[in-house]
Amino acid sequence: MLLALLLVLAPQDPADELRRQELALRLSELADGEKLDGFARAVQRELRAPKVDARLFEQCWAPVARRRWEGRLEALIASWDKAAIEAPTPGRLLYRARLEDLATRPKPCRERLEEAVKNFPGDPVLLWHLAKARFEAGDRGPAAQALEEMAAIKGAVFDVDEFHRLLVTSYAETERRAAAVEHLRALRKEDENAVDYARLASKAKLPEEAARLYRIAIQDEPERISLKMGLIVALLASGDRVEAAAERSRLFVVDGKLSKSKLEDYFFLLPAEGRSEEIVRTLRDLREPSLLSFLGAIPTESRGSVMTEWERTTQNGRDWALLSRMKSLWSTEQARLDTLTMGEALFPKDPWIILERIDALDKVEQFKEMGAAYVRLCELDPLGKITGPRPFEPLTRALKDLSLKDVPAAIRMAFRLLAEPGIDDASAAATRAALRPGWELSAGLFWEELKKTPLPRPSKAVEQSVREQLEKLSADDFEVRAGAALELKKGGLLSIPVLLERIDDKDAEVRSRVRDAVRSILTD
Asked: What average pLDDT does range 41-67 have in this prediction?
């Protein structure tokens, strides 16, 4: 709109001002009394000048703009056209064009303005309205052209800030970025209007300027989350992901810890367009070890699209492992297993997928497959340097089931678990306890399987020590035999390959004590 405030504040001749007040009163009476023919004639008399008087035009337009016509607008247009018997003037043509706009017919409005500018070139008010009509129609280049032509006219009166705003968008969308930035920075009172200008810069795809302006706004309102969100989005749009991640971290951290409530607020306030992409970027940039505990911060309505976007942007096995956890929380365990299968096909040597598969198989009680997954995990990450401590609790659940149903698998699993370099006393005891029920139920099967199981040989020193104790089992002295049996039980896993050589010894007492030592090492 024209700069009505400046027009009102401009110094006026008292007599002229009195005449204008009388005109305003007369026009209002005609419009309010629906004397449309008289109103149209009166306005056309006022707009007879060869140039548009911006102040006079606004005064003539005000009674129309403020009135609710409720179906009578077409009658006004008809009265206007009937009264148009004199030669057209720029003011009359502009008024008729704006009536089309008021009737929500933007195309005829623009066509009339285009024709008016051709008939009366160089009229700044006509150019101003034509520029805005072109802008609203999406013709940014022609809009900028009209604004440039208007600004070059000496004495042109217009809303300076709206002029710059229109050119910011018009230039930005016609690949004149430097000119767009110039007009953005020409807007007045930047400190007071930083938020508004930042949004304008974002809309005009000037992210660096948007980020600069959001920083100015944040200085005044440091706790306003929407401003920080705007800054993060602007930084991402400018390609500065590192700084965007840093800003997110500052936004989400409270007293040195990541705040789930802050994360929830951020996700909730994100605009629908691009929300899933930003949620995924945020999760990736957080690099939080306990990231799984923050999945609940994702809005329910966004979870499906977040999973889709996460899958689209997966980069490694750990990404697939996290995706499978999303499937577990928001879909089904079978969907989780299917996801892990897809991930393993892409990253067959990534132990994170296997670790996640162990948890998934535990949830559906597929213990035999779980044992196989554990074997695979040991192959890919033998010392746990990548995935960390073994998940002994679910593994011992699987071992207990296998010891009753699949002795060969149980034997292999038990040996692996007890041989883990990082196993603690409690986990070792739990492993032995898990194997015990199956052993007690089917000891014969366990002995047969032990004979067939390939086991690593101990060092020569260990082997020699075990053999020395085995010889003592044949001693005449009972206490020597009992002491040797006790020492054999302390030998641990490494002694079992040597002990197995004597489990079928012809001497019943030797056979019994050796078997008792092996059973004790594996189940007590």
From this structure: 89
Whole-angstrom Cα distance, residue 63 to residue 73? Answer: 13
Taking the CB of residue 397, how many other CB atoms lie within 10 A of it? 17
Domain count along the chain: 1
Angle at 515 between CA 368 and CA 509, to 5 degrees: 165
- DSSP assignment of 330-352: HS-HHHHHHHHHHHHHH-TT-HH
CB distance 132 to 166 below 8 Å: yes
pTM listed for this prediction:
0.65
Helix or strand holding residue 301 (H, E): none
178: in domain: no
Compute the half-sphere exposure of residue 156: CA atoms within 13 Å on the CB side of its CA. Answer: 21
Given pLDDT bands bounded at 50, 70 and 90, which one contains residue 12? low
Q: How remote is the C-alpha of 16 from its chain's centroid? A: 61
Q: Give SS3 for 155.
A: coil
8 pLDDT above the threshold of 90: no
Residue 298 is given by DSSP the state S
How do residues 308-350 score in pLDDT, each as one tens digit? 999 999 999 999 999 999 999 999 999 999 999 999 999 999 9
Give the end-to-end CA distance of the chain in Å, rounded to a whole number.
90
| CATH code assigned at 504 | 1.25.10
Q: Does 515 map to a domain? A: yes
Taking the C-alpha atoms of residue 63 and residue 66, their distance in angstroms, rounded to an integer, is: 6
Q: pLDDT digits over 230-239, tens only?
A: 999 899 899 9
- Distance (Å, whole) CA 386 – CA 242: 26
- Residue 217's pLDDT is what? 94
Length of the chain: 524
HSE-CB at 110 with a 13 A cutoff on CA atoms is 15
Give the C-alpha separation, 338 to 322, whole Å.
Answer: 13
The residues, any chain, with a CB within 8 Å of residue 223's CB and separated by 6 or more, are: none
Q: Please write down the HEC assignment for all residues of 168-233.
A: HHHHHCCCCHHHHHHHHHHCCCCCCCHHHHHHHHHHCCCHHHHHHHHHHHHHHCCCCHHHHHHHHH
Give the tokens for residue 68.
């609710």
User: pLDDT value at position 463?
Assistant: 87
The answer to whether residue 511 is domain-embedded is yes
- Position 478 in a domain: yes
How far is the CA of 497 from the CAs of 255, 432, 456, 517, in angstroms? Answer: 56, 18, 7, 12
What does DSSP assign to residue 353? H
Residue 34 half-sphere exposure toward CB, CA atoms < 13 A: 8
Distances (CA, A) of 392 to 388, 424, 485: 12, 10, 30
C-alpha span between 326 and 324 (Å, rounded): 5
CA separation for the pair 392, 411 (Å, rounded): 16
The structure tokens listed for 265 are 């607020």
Domain that holds residue 484: 460-523
